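User: Hi! Is it possible to get a structure for several chains at once, not just one? Here's what I have:
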Amino acid sequence: MFRRFWRWLSTIEGKIVLVITLISVVILTATGTMAVLVPPDKGRGRFLEKHYKRFDGYRTGLGRGLAANASFVAQAPMLVHQLNVDADNDDVALVMNITRAGQENAATEIGEAVARAAELPAGTPAFERVVSSVSRTIQPDLVFAFNSQLEILGETDISEAEANRSRLFTDVLGGITVVGELAILGNHVYQVSAAPIRRGDGAVIGGVVLGQRIERYMEDYRDQSDDNPKKQHQPVFLDVHGHVLASLFPSERVTALGEALSPETYPREEEGLWKTVPVIHLPTASGSTDRLDFWAEEVNGYSGQEYGPIGQIFLLRDREFKMEEREMRLLKLLAAFILVGLLAIAIGRWLSRIISRRIQHYVSATDDLAQGQGDLTRRLKVGGMDELGHLATNLNSVFGYIHDLAANVQNSAFQVGASSAEISAASRQMLEGAQEQARKTESSSAAVTELSASIQQVAENAMEATRVARSSGEAVQDAIGRMNEIRETVEGAAARIHDLGESGKRIGSIVEVIRQISDQTTLLALNAAIEAAHAGEQGRGFAVVADEVSSLAKRVGQSARDIEDLIATIKEQTEEAVKAMESGTEKVEAGTRLVSATLSDLQTLVGVVEDTAAAVQEQAVASDEIARNMDVVQSIAQDVLGSSEEAVSQGEHLHRLAFNLEESVKGFKINAAEGASEAPRALPSGEN
Amino acid sequence: MTGALQLVCFHIAGQEFGAAIHDVRETIGVGPVTPVFHTPPCVAGITNLRGEILAVLDLARLLGLPATDIDEVTRIVVVEAKGRAAGLLVDELGVIRQVETDAIVPAPSTFSSQIATVIRGIIPTDGTPITVIDIERLLDAPILAPFIERPDDDGPTETHVS
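Assistant: Yes, the chains can be modeled jointly so their relative placement is included. Here is the combined structure:
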């Protein structure tokens, strides 16, 4: 029996029931305990505090209204006049004053009342008329005026002696307006308001006091506190001496009330398990005791010559009624406890049944799948939007995915089988290709090596060309040097020839001298012949000599002339030679320039050839690099060859694996009519 | 009047002339010839020959030929007859020729009288004929009288020497 219960408890159903029951019990226990042990604020002494505030507010509000009335009465011109002048003044003037006052202060009830006072029969004192009208309006318990000598006007039981002692009067004469203060006057407690009466120049000439007995407030408040007289609140005023000055209790209980309200210590009564509260025990006439909750607060006010604490205001309420309420609540609580417990168990069982039944359904639906078998086209019934419904939807999705997966696997396995066969074939082709590539690469490599060798040859030829071009340049340079030498030599020859010409000129001048000498000699010979002729026969021999001399001189002259002709010829020829040489020199210079230009071109050519040689050298290096790379390519091609063989064997392996894969998913039932490649069916509800 | 005659030959204006060697004192180069104002065109000027003032005659102008240009072969032939001397400007001196007196033929009558008086005759040769000047007559020519020094005249020589 116990073991069966324990097993039930370990199922989801048992756990839910247990949890719900425990939670219910805990909540009930907590709330019950709170309710029993810690009673609510309602029903304890302190609850009266807020009621006291209400009472106090009520009292203060009424006091403020009264103060407005007092101020208004104090401004009544008649009253001012009466206090200021004689009582027997002209009534016409008063009427006029009152009427004007009424117009100026229109709209207040008091104003109208004061105005009406003027219509009272003449001869009545002004204050009496005012009081009469005010009393008809607000019916104050206390209404009087007084002058600066503290003489009281109006009917009141307050004696002038008491007025003389009272701080209230002196405050008003000091110009203070009293608003809703408590005052003990003539053994009564009043709520008083008072205002000073001022002359036209502002001087205080007296005061007006309006007051209500506090019992009137108490009565109003008590009647409004509750309809049930037993539940009504009872306000009490207790003075500083422990005397009850105002209450609604019958007068024979007042003494006992005073004693009960001011004991040495208040008796305490239990409230709940851990708390006691102070209470008031008031004996009754029949000898029993009334037990009362209370709230008390000190109040300030006028008492004789002082303004300050004048006593306490109590609010009292009967306590019996509260105790009954608490016992009733306990009984109700117990009943609710039992009822809720039973309800919790019932709900728990019902709830857990609903939940676990569906879970059981899901478990049985997935049992087959757990063993790698089963119908993948089946779907769970969702039956709800809760978490289990969500679970069912998810499981349906999972079924769908597994269905698709298995279908895809079957299809893919088939396709992989086919593809792997293709891959095998392709790999074989690739292998052949790789072999072909390896062969081609080898021949390319050889070609590149040859190319490299030829480029090397070209590079060497280019270097040779550079050397040849350079030596050509040197040869041309040499030629230029030679031509320069030629030019210099020709110039030297020209200079010599020029010198020769000069020498010819000198010879010419010498020959000229010779010719002149010859002429002179001829002349002399002629003269000698003439002299010989003059000498006659003796001169004959001399004449012969003279003749010889003359012919000699003539020959000399002729020779000199021939020499001059020759020299002229030499001069001409020399000049021609010089011209020819100058022309030759110019030609040599032009040739030199030409050859220099050629040299410059040749140097450029050398530069170009050198650049070409360098470029070809770089090319040779690059082609070497290419040859080395071709070696690498060749080795890579060998690797590719190996890889292709590997690919062939791997393709065959893949084919076997695909076959195995197809075998492994054959266990699942996939609707044959739909075909493995068809799109998965839409899932049943649960996702929307 | 037969017999040999020696002629000093010279050339004026391309023609060869000759003067009897007895009438020729000497030949000299052309020194400075100073022109003289108010003289006939045939008087070229005067020159100083070793202290002796000589009148230099331009025969070419006298014979109606163009004036003689003085160049390096121009010479002065100093002639002298009856104590009177003068210089003749010649283009070029020739040689001394030996001629027979018979070879001299008289000048043709077509010559003007002024020229004919100073010409002794013409010697025809293979080339150009040689005109023989009669120095004595030349120096006697009236046109030259004021300029040619006579031996009995004093004056000009003395003046020039000083």
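The longest strand of chain B covers residues 4-12. Residues 17 and 131 of chain B are 5 Å apart (CA to CA).

User: Great, thank you!
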